[in-house]
Amino acid sequence: MQDGAGRRCGHYHGCTSGERPAPRHDTRRATGQTTRTNDDIAFREGKMLQPRRTLLSTALASAILLSAPQTFAQDTAAAPDGEEATELDRIVVTGIRSSIERSIDTKQTSTSIVEAISAEDIGKLPDASIAESIARLPGLTAQRERGRATQINIRGFAGDFSTATLNGREQASTGDNRGVEFDQYPSELLSQVVVYKTPDAALVGQGLSGTVDLQTVRPLSFDERVVSVNARYERNRIRDQRENGHRLSATYIDQFADDTFGVMLAVSRMDSPQPGYQNEVWGFTDGPDGTMVLGGGKLYRFDNSHERTGVAATLQFKPSDVYEGTLDWFHSRFEKTEIKTGMEFGTLWGSGVLRPGYTVAGNGTIVDSVWDDVSPVIRMDSNPIDDRLDSIGLNSKFRIGDHWLVNFDLSRSDVERSFRVLETYAGVASNNGYTTLQASLDPGRLYYNYVLGQTFDDPGTLVLTDAGGWGQDGYLKDFGVNDRIRAVRLNAIRSFENGFISAVDFGANHSKRTKDKASIEAKLCLTDCSGGRFGVTAPFPGGIQDFNFGGIGRLGVYDANAILDSGLYNFVYNYHEDIAAKNWEVEEEQTTVYVKADIDTELGGMPLRGNVGVQKIYVDQSSLGYSTFEGNPAGSAVTDGIDYSVTLPSLNLGLEFLPETVLRLGLARQMARPRMDQLTAGMNVGIDVTRGEWSAGGGNPRLRPWLADAVDVSLEKYFTTAAGNRGYVGAAWFHKDLKTYIYNQDVAFDFSDFPLPPPIPGQDVYPDSPIGRINQPFNGEGGTIRGLELTASVPLDVLWAPLDGLGIIATYSDTDSSIHPNGPGTSEPISGLSKYVSNATVYYERGGFSIRYSRRTRSDFRGETRGFGADYQTISIAGETVQDAQVNYTFNHGPLEGLSLYLQVSNIGDEPFAAYNDGDPANRPERYFEYGRTTLVGFSYRF
């Protein structure tokens, strides 16, 4: 017999979108640590109870855990029909184990296939940003930028194929497209993260690869005041450099007016330096006698600074069982400053002349060479980024009778990004800047080493100038990105005491999103940039510092920002078709109507739970961009768009065919909206001289989304050891069959509505027809992606009782794809796909002492990163292994109770970020970044 007490919110994201009406027998939440009843564990004193723990009983015991993600406990439950309530025996679980077990309970009781991570205490997720924590989950990994995890790849898809929500509300993104940069979110402000791998019809804004829901604390989930402070001293070390920073956070939670009004306020501050080195090849090109040779190179020493301030606040008001209101605010400001010192030099793509006698590898790549007449350019760059994120949501729940709940939610998410790229140039005045260069592949084959025929440590020989003949003495780019989402949601839930269907959830969500990008670029000229190489010079304004990288000992340096602010340079604004393409605005209005039925029944005496539903999504999208023509490089504004609808059915079933053994099935159609930069209406129009017709390249505001039919199967075995430790092992298989995907195509196009330029006197070719061709993104068909995921979270006392406290968490995924993002017949894999991904964590916790070591590994993959001039480009990134460890001691008794001390080390092995040329990974390395190791020492105190 099943009653309302065994039912829970059918999807877990703080139940912002609406939770079920309160069951008749409401189990109250209380403050404290994770609590397990004697239904599923035994006393540590040697007794052991092992009754059958069904999936339904797990849901009953865990429903409270899922609605209060930060700390959990269970009071005496009200007994039905006036029977006397019985106090349940319990064991309190703290620390690492509490985090692991809350995550296991979330996974086991969910009606969808999910992964979860939970904080072990207030503000104590162990990583600098939530991206590092998410990257350890099965089937997930992270792409690093500036030495830190940023975008999350789910099941072989890049970040643009997933969505992120905060307390169930879709988030704007700081990047150029849809992928959320998760380093914007301080881990100290979050209590839990749930990653949905299969859709739920009531989950609005879900992605094709998955949905990441970030969750903050609910103050009325506690029955007492909680204050927590955390402080960490940070040291970042690379080679002989050491720089120090700090991280601070504090959380205040309280309840007032007989626990009808709750307040949560959390503040986080990070000041984290990040020194590092960059060794990069411009690229490879055709050399003599059929060889391939590097076109140029660059060496930099950079000093990054990351300053992030985060604030999370929640007001929760529950004056009665009829009404509950919650107001959430999340703010993050992330200032990233990058100061780069170094040089660049062209070889074959510059003035260099290759000497005979070079060494050629077996694949035809020149790996050791000497060049004459190379003109090095000393570079001082500054690349600051200022990101601001604000998310606000107001949720109201109205309970009507015993079986109805009406939910109304208003939210907004706003992002502003300012990004500057400043380049300034200098050179050696002697010999007109020319010198010799030897370039040789490092024996480790990770980068090239260089030996130059002159030194750069005498300020008297250095001048500010156009040392490379690039037509400018410096360059300036100012980017701006704004992203705004407004959403309103209304839904109702009807629950049922008996029957196959336990509840029906139906409603609608309407959102409007506007995202724009602006780019202003200018040449920096000592006069008018017409003098050529060393044509105009200015005195060198700096001194000399040690460089000690890539073959350069000492190097002249100066402050690029100070030179720019001094007024030394004249600004010559640059108007070009490529710059015009970086200015656009996309507006989307999306209405989602859905209905979902929760299943809670038995099949042949076996508990069966799940959900079935459908979403109907109506989309109205439009875009503004700039079309450029000969004689009009700034472009003319154009707009275009389309409206369409998509139907997304979904089914999730979980059958407990053996005690605590669940077989899950997920069937769904999934969707990913096109990238923002693909939707731009602008194009560059010119004449294809070979064909004698108009041609163009640009975006496509009429794009429809990626669509895939997905099948997910998961087998999960949960267990409890004699000591009361929870664990599980699982295997999952997924298959996505693409119905439509997006890639660039050449198609016929009618240019008659465009202001085509008139013929130029003496022009040889001018088309006599407005019909030509355009290369732009279009919807194609076909392609699959499939994978296998294995997971084990095993407390080792299941093997031998004296190992109580020691455990292992291990995940492994193997993914294959036949999707070709550049179109049929091409071989490039989709961005974000590593065939092999593995994560392993070993932990030990006993008597207040805990230690954990984590190692995450991914194989080679294609990924998008900022390249030349800070523009996005897709490159081949080498596989990597990132390691970190943490040691804690918590005082559980005495005058220091509540105090925790810890030591943490990140990137233990100083794993570089490396990329290579597609033609030869072994002999053609293109990018090599070193970021060093980070050590943190700190404490947390809860009182």
Automatic annotation (TrEMBL):
<feature type="region of interest" description="Disordered">
    <location>
        <begin position="1"/>
        <end position="36"/>
    </location>
</feature>
<dbReference type="GO" id="GO:0009279">
    <property type="term" value="C:cell outer membrane"/>
</dbReference>
<feature type="domain" description="TonB-dependent receptor plug">
    <location>
        <begin position="107"/>
        <end position="210"/>
    </location>
</feature>
<dbReference type="InterPro" id="IPR012910">
    <property type="entry name" value="Plug_dom"/>
</dbReference>
<dbReference type="InterPro" id="IPR036942">
    <property type="entry name" value="Beta-barrel_TonB_sf"/>
</dbReference>
<dbReference type="Pfam" id="PF07715">
    <property type="entry name" value="Plug"/>
</dbReference>
<keyword id="KW-0472">Membrane</keyword>
<dbReference type="InterPro" id="IPR037066">
    <property type="entry name" value="Plug_dom_sf"/>
</dbReference>
<keyword id="KW-0998">Cell outer membrane</keyword>
<protein>
    <submittedName>
        <fullName>TonB-dependent receptor</fullName>
    </submittedName>
</protein>
<keyword id="KW-0675">Receptor</keyword>
<dbReference type="InterPro" id="IPR010104">
    <property type="entry name" value="TonB_rcpt_bac"/>
</dbReference>
